[in-house]
């Protein structure tokens, strides 16, 4: 199982720790470093900054939001960074949810998310292969555009720049069983959220029959500390926000996933509290047991024991949300 460093997205401003953490991860032999985006910092600029100050560590997006860019624009970002970094780029994509897509990007959330994702990946693949001008008679991502409000003179094009790698890895963030099954068919890898080694069935039957060489790279908070309960607080804070606030009360993919993992009553209670303005109570309502399942927190010996569970399943890469270099070092030692 390879290790990756997940840096997430910025909060109020850029973190001065991100580049030093990435450099330390590279020194320790971590395979990859990953950035994210929500509705603040973008995913590619920080990754480019890190690329310029590292030399061997792979560079991934976990995830680049599809609604933020047309698929050709995303492919341009990926092929550009792949050239500048000497072939280190891995493109992780995610659809996000209706609140973000419509509220932040000002676009309609697709009525058929699976189709929209499939078309998006198709266009990205066409750009990276550069075998012919990009053409797709799609429902969401037609190339050239053929809508009634267009001029009708759009021309099919292929990229001027020759991609460094036509097979640049494309990974997808997916939560629902149908989405996971499609991901196994059309992508090179999967970025699970809230992976619990003992509950792979929560993601559907496809997890039991993934293609050979398929990358499974969940994100997990890891922290070496003496007090497990205290170490779980950041995990619970994250879960309180995502389960409670990253979606509508009637449509929240994160809450639905938590429910499928056996915590339906708790997920609805977190939503109720968060949406009612009682955010701290929502965080405290997150069960320690659930936060513990999806993270690696506690003394070195406890992390070592629980790490074996992560190695036994389909996980190929563990993307580590770690707050300090000590934790990165201990995990590297345990995984060697």
What are the SSEs and their pairings?
Elements: E1 2-8, H1 18-27, E2 32-35, H2 44-51, E3 58-61, E4 64-65, H3 71-84, E5 89-94, H4 98-103, H5 113-129, E6 170-172, H6 177-186, E7 189-190, E8 215-216, E9 219-224, H7 228-245, H8 253-275, H9 279-284, H10 288-293, E10 296-298, H11 300-312, E11 317-321, H12 325-335
Helix pairs in contact: 3-5, 5-6, 7-8, 11-12
Compute the CA-based radius of gyration.
20 Å
Name the CATH superfamily assignment of the largest domain: Luciferase-like domain
Shape by Cα distribution: globular
Q: What class would the helix/strand composition place it in?
A: alpha/beta
**Number of H- or I-type helical stretches:** 12
Which CATH C-level class of the largest domain is it? Alpha Beta
Euclidean distance between termini CA atoms: 9 Å
State the helical fraction: 40-55%
Overall tally of structural domains: 2
CATH architecture of the largest domain: Alpha-Beta Barrel
What is the percentage of strand-forming residues? 5-15%
Protein name: LLM class F420-dependent oxidoreductase
Domain Luciferase-like: 17-315
GO molecular function: oxidoreductase activity, acting on paired donors, with incorporation or reduction of molecular oxygen
Keywords: Oxidoreductase
């Amino acid at each position: 199982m390879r290790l990756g460093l997940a840096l997430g997205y910025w909060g109020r401003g850029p973190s001065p720790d991100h580049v030093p953490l990435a450099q330390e991860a590279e020194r320790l032999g971590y395979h990859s470093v990953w950035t994210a985006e929500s509705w603040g910092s973008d995913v590619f600029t920080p990754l480019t900054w890190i690329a310029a100050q590292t030399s061997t560590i792979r560079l991934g997006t976990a995830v680049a939001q599809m609604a933020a860019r047309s698929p050709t624009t995303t492919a341009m970002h990926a092929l550009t960074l792949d050239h500048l970094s000497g072939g280190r780029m891995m493109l992780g994509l995610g659809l996000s949810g209706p609140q973000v897509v419509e509220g932040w990007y000002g676009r309609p959330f697709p009525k058929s998310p699976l189709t929209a994702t499939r078309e998006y990946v198709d266009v990205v693949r066409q750009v990276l292969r550069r075998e012919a001008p990009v053409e797709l008679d799609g429902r969401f991502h037609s190339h050239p555009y053929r809508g009634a409000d267009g001029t009708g003179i759009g021309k099919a094009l292929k990229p001027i720049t020759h991609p460094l790698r036509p097979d640049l890895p494309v990974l997808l963030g997916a939560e629902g069983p149908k989405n996971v099954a499609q991901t196994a068919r059309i992508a090179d890898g999967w970025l699970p959220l809230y992976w619990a080694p003992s509950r792979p069935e929560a993601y559907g039957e496809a997890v039991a029959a993934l293609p050979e060489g398929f990358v499974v790279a969940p994100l997990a908070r890891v922290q070496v500390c003496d007090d497990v309960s205290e170490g779980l607080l950041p995990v619970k804070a994250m879960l309180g926000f995502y389960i409670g606030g990253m979606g509508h009360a009637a449509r929240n993919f994160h809450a639905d996933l938590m429910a499928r993992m056996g915590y339906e009553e708790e997920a609805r209670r977190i939503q109720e509290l968060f949406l009612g303005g009682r955010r701290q109570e929502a965080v405290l309502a997150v069960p320690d047991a659930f936060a513990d399942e999806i993270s690696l927190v506690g003394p070195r010996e406890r992390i070592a024991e629980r790490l074996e569970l992560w190695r036994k399943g389909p996980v190929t890469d563990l993307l580590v949300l770690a707050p300090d270099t000590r934790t990165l070092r201990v995990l590297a030692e345990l995984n060697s």
